[in-house]
Specification:
Number of domains: 2
Number of strands: 11
Oligomer: single chain
CATH class of the largest domain: Alpha Beta
Largest sheet: 6 strands, parallel
CATH superfamily of the largest domain: NAD(P)-binding Rossmann-like Domain
CATH architecture of the largest domain: 3-Layer(aba) Sandwich
Bound molecules: nicotinamide-adenine-dinucleotide
């Protein structure tokens, strides 16, 4: 495979291939850009069908982290790592130790955090072999002490972002009576739904699992709908909090919502779908801007946790979105495109 000429290769600074015979480790660490600070990003373990797929994934995701951190005004660059393998059957202490030793050799240019297939416990284990992992400290929260889980911060940032988007598109300061559909009531989505309910919103929820739906119905008075029904609901806001690529050729024509604002990563199936939303008068809050609460949380953990400073930083998501919305309005460009331009101005400066 010709790595340098891949479109996903963009302008990566460093890509490291790691293997360890004894533990069976095969991993790739990608540092996209470190202008603003060390490259921080999740370590994903996944049974990729091919090495090509793993390379493309790590290149795409590490680049995304540069944009996300720059937009959130963090002194961090963008990076990501992938371990090729099934986390259920192939993740052993020896494999994690070998991966951690590889991180240590990079001397802090890349800092790993949990991601799909890895856990806070895995990160904590790796601290025996490296200093360069994040998202591991127990810290106080409203619900009691919790470990590095960034979901509550992500949910709060998404809530702030929905308020900003509603203000921009619907001209409303209050969420009282606002109709919101939440796709996916997992860690982030459920917490977000709770905050929306407390602010007076009316909720519709969907998920592929029954249990969180029953809970959302009981606890939040949410109306439960089938996964395929969520797109066409007569609501004000559609909040995707489940999976990527859900804004596509088949779902966009169904949307009645005037605002799409949720926590899921990579919501646009392709960049052109951002233009499609704009054409239909739907305001899209770019995913990596609105869901930055998690990375902001991890960053604050590294610089010394101060809850008030963390909250203030997360609330800055509103300013970021307002800047994007205003520029998109003036320049008549899709919000995702404008977000990328602003992020580039920040990290290329
Ligand atoms: P999660 O796994 O806890 O929740 C996702 C929920 O979506 C689950 O309940 C799942 O059953 C449901 N789901 C999956 N497929 C679905 C479908 N087709 N229709 C409806 N529901 C479906 O994950 P999470 O941590 O809550 O993250 C949610 C999204 O936000 C993901 O896209 C994630 O990448 C993104 N995100 C999360 C964080 C964070 O801090 N956790 C940070 C940034 C971005």
């Amino acid at each position: 495979m010709a790595v340098f000429s891949l479109s996903d290769f963009a302008d990566h600074e460093q890509v490291v291939f790691v293997s360890d015979d004894k533990s069976g480790l095969k991993a790739i660490i990608a540092v996209h850009n470190s202008n603003l600070g060390p490259a921080l990003g999740g370590c994903r373990m996944w049974p990729y069908a091919s090495e090509d797929e793993a390379i493309r994934d790590v290149l795409r995701l590490s680049r995304g982290m540069t944009y996300k951190s720059a937009m959130a005004n963090l002194k961090l660059g963008g990076g990501k790592s992938v371990i090729i393998g099934n986390p259920r059957t192939q993740k052993t202490p020896e494999l994690l130790a070998a991966f951690a030793r590889a991180l240590e050799q990079l001397n802090g240019r890349y800092i790993a955090a949990e991601d799909s297939g890895t856990s806070v416990a895995d990160m904590k284990y790796m601290t025996q072999f490296t200093r360069h992992v994040a998202g591991i400290h127990d810290k106080p929260s409203d619900a009691g002490t919790r470990s590095g889980d960034p979901s509550p911060a992500t949910a709060y940032g998404t809530f702030i972002g929905i308020k900003a988007a509603v203000k921009e598109r619907l001209g409303r300061d209050s969420l009282e009576g606002l109709r919101v559909a939440v796709q996916g009531v997992g860690n982030v989505g459920f917490d977000l739904a709770r905050q929306l309910k407390a602010a007076g919103a009316q909720l519709w929820v969907t998920d592929i699992h029954r249990e969180p739906l029953l809970q959302a119905g009981k606890e939040l008075g949410a109306t439960v709908v089938a996964p395929e029904e969520v797109f066409g609901l007569d609501v004000d806001v559609f909040a995707p909090c489940a999976l990527g690529a859900i804004l596509n050729d088949s779902t966009i024509p169904q949307l009645k919502a005037k605002v799409v604002a949720g926590a899921a990563n990579n919501q646009l199936a392709e960049a052109r779908h951002g233009a499609e939303l704009m054409k239909r008068g739907i305001l899209y809050a770019p995913d990596y801007v609105i869901n930055a609460g998690g990375i902001i949380d991890v960053y604050h953990e590294r610089i010394g946790f101060d809850r008030a400073a963390l909250i203030k930083h997360i609330e800055g998501i509103e300013d970021n979105l307002m800047e994007i919305f205003e520029r998109a309005r003036k320049e008549e460009r899709p919000t995702g495109e404008v977000a990328d331009a602003i992020a580039e101005e920040r990290f290329k400066r």
